[in-house]
Amino acid sequence: MSKGFPENFLWGGAIAANQAEGAWNVDGKGPSVADIAMYRPHLNVEDYEAHQTVTTEMIERAMQDSDVKKYPKRRGIDFYHRYKEDLALFAEMGFKALRVSIAWSRIFPTGEENEPNESGLKFYDGLFKEMKRLGIEPIVTLSHYEMPLALSVKYNGWAERKVIDDFVKFSNVCFSRYKDLVKYWLTFNEIDSIIRHPFTTAGIVPDRCPEGKVEETIYQALHHQFVASALVTADCHRIIPGSQVGCMLTMLTTYPNTCHPKDVEITLMRNLHTYFYADVQVFGEYPPLIETMLEQKNIHLQMEPGDREILRKHTVDFVSFSYYMSLTESAKEGLERASGNTITGVKNPYLPSTEWGWQIDPVGLKISLIELYDRYRKPLLIVENGMGAVDQVESDGSIHDDYRINYFREHFKQMKEAVEAGVDLFGYTSWAPIDIISAGTSQMSKRYGFIYVDQDDEGNGTLQRSRKDSFYWYKKVIETNGENL
Ligand code: BG6
């Protein structure tokens, strides 16, 4: 008899404020970096870096542009006004947990005010209280691609050390205000993503970095985020006894394309780089090989005397991560590549892909769980996993999304095997339980939800919510604690 998922396993879903709430300029909220993210349906991941490069001029132009169609995250799915209805649907599915983020610029519109914005705080009071009432445990991310735009404009975002203080102030306000409602906290969503999209993750505008120093600036900003993460981990433990703080990693498990030692070597280095970000937050120090890599790249981090001590003392309680697909790497150039979550890899002939070209690899999730648990020996939490797809609404309003059910079923089977192999996994929140705006392309048509939202890419639609086939399927999974897949 298999033992299956632990009792009290946190089944649920995950969303981010900037992709769901909308109401971008309501009740005192300041603009965030997400509010100037453009609708880019034809984003080619091969050119990801070029597409991600935000210029000072683009920011200025966007701030004068009131056309919400171009900037869909400004409208989201109006979760801000409809969260009660949405939470009721999550509760109907039996959710034990919901991961959300707090929009920093709702609380501190420019990041630098002395006093928080009370209306912003009230919104999250309402949200967390309603979750508690429904028996849904909040898992809250403090920074999910939505820092106040003003901090980017004024300081080039996290490039400036002072932003650590602004973030600590914001986090402390959240801990004090929600201490009776929220036990699980994540500091930075996909902290590693700063390398792939420095503006979205850290407000860094390359044309404002010192000449020839863009990469160094990015690593410096990352260092500031590591220090900030450690500081707020300590604060959280102090302000909320019994709280649990996690780091959050994009799990980019990478396979060698062949057993050629050069392929294995390049893959090893890539995986070491993936782990680096969690290594710092779990082990409390930079891995020596990464320090050497930085030196070889002529990257010199400015550290203050106490920084290493701060990192060492305040490590995280658990490791959370997103997993969408695996990657493959080769030392050979010119091989066909497949796109993934803001990154590409060599095409893996054994794997099918989503409509957006992300390769579907359930076994890769089991491999990731085993690798992460063996490396860190910390409880694990999967906080993002899912597939973006175009859904077809039938004339009777039903949506038959077998592809999504199959995706989840296969991933859950692998999760279960990992748990049975001894991995300490305490929860799973799918991305995203309700259709929201895509982070990468700002499309609405790239749908992840069990719940359909009637809105197209242009923002037309009633915003009415409806249940897809996967809604009923996931409800059963939760009811049977994953026994009935
Ligand atoms: C993760 C992000 O990297 O990928 C989410 O944390 C995002 O914010 C998710 O939505 C899926 O990416 P996309 O571009 O399909 O929305």
UniProtKB/TrEMBL annotation:
A cellular-component GO term for this protein: cytosol
Protein name from the UniProt record: Amygdalase
Active site: E384
Single annotated GO MF: beta-glucosidase activity
Homology family: Belongs to the glycosyl hydrolase 1 family.
Domain of life: Bacteria
PROSITE patterns: GLYCOSYL_HYDROL_F1_1, GLYCOSYL_HYDROL_F1_2
InterPro entries in the record: GH, GH_1_N_CS, Glyco_hydro_1, Glyco_hydro_1_AS
Species name: Paenibacillus antibioticophila
Keywords attached to this entry: Glycosidase, Hydrolase
Single biological process term from Gene Ontology: carbohydrate catabolic process
Gene3D superfamilies registered for this protein in UniProt: Glycosidases
